[in-house]
Amino acid sequence: MSNKEKSIIPGAYVKLSFTAMTKEGEIAESTKRKIKEGDVEKEVDNPIVIKIGNKEVFFEDELIGLKEGEEKDFILPPDRAYGKRDPSKVERIPIKKLRAMLGGKKPYVGALLYSEDDRYYGKVIYVGGRDAMVDRNHPFADKEIVVKVKVHQIVPPDAPISERVKIILMRHTRDITDKVKIRKKADTLDIIIPSDITMKLPAIDLLRNVWINRKTLADELLRELDISGVRFIDEFKLEEEKEVAGSKSSETRKET
Question: Given phi > 0 = left and psi -120 to 50 = alpha, else beta, which region is 248?
Fold first, then answer.
């Protein structure tokens, strides 16, 4: 199947960019963000990878049939976006619990709360002496939402295992997918992290971008592929130091 013929079907992995906004232009969600480099502000896009069928984005149904490279805009009513406002979703929470949800910070009206898995929980609408009121409705409930989507890559369920491994890796690691080596032996998959990643990344980035998500990554690989085991192999080599040492030896020989 050529790239032009690829279209989104159930079970496919899709790399995409999107922006969801109200008709008035207020951004609800986006893969794009603005950053400053010196005095210059620019927009950076960080596409996401989703699996069709898991309902990982609220507009998943609109993606079916889109082709690789295609861009599309569509409008969704409240019941297909962030829902209709429900007055019963206003709850009372003890101040102590609210402080914990805010990471120990002092509660204030307008604060947005998130659950432990980083999902939106609610908005603080009242703070009293012992309790606070939290509106569990989404901030964009009752709003029609305009979604702008661009499809970068589609990996169908019947794609070669190497393509499926790489797209799954892309979901759980940052900026290293193209450098990782993949090796399949019988029913075991080896994920090899080369030394130009392990030796060059700062320890904190290695933890965040490579190691911390391994359990989740392994679970998905085992679930999605016809394998019974996953091994992670970290390579560490002192190639640069050897080169430096070699160049110093050459300089010494020249001096003598």
Answer: alpha
